[in-house]
Amino acid sequence: MEKPIVFIDMDGVLADLGAGAKASPLFQEDQYKNDPDDIPDIFENLPPIKDAIEAVNKLHDTKRFDLFILTTAPWDNPSAWMHKRTWIEKHFGDKFYQKIIITHRKDLLIGDYLIDDRTARGASEFKGKHIHFGWDYVNQKDNEYPNWESVLEFFDCN
After folding, report:
1. So what family is this one in (predicted)?
2. pTM, two decimal places
3. Residue 70 has pLDDT above 70, yes or no
């Protein structure tokens, strides 16, 4: 029997881009205030989202799911592509070796679940279940799955 495929977004789900941007002195420059993902080397040392590393390791260790990292990288910041990969390796070792997908069209992938904090880049059109994670900055409220504890509960991994 095939395991359910779970795609996990990186920014806002695993890595805290907001905290990383605020910690960067370049964030105060006009060119980066609205596009912090264009800050050079921003993705290299982002802090993890609370409980993200432990929760993903728990999902992995159940051996019930086929996990992939599914992320978008800024087109104008090519070093981000490499830094996202090294961030994942730093925090997860080889668990995601050849299991990292970078795309601007998440709706084109076939899987059972997508854990993502946004609806952009095809997440809202994803054919499986969108596990809408974290905080909705537009509406200033929690998404359906506000934290990793709620995600683990959904997957019956508490």
Report:
1. Belongs to the 5'(3')-deoxyribonucleotidase family.
2. 0.92
3. yes
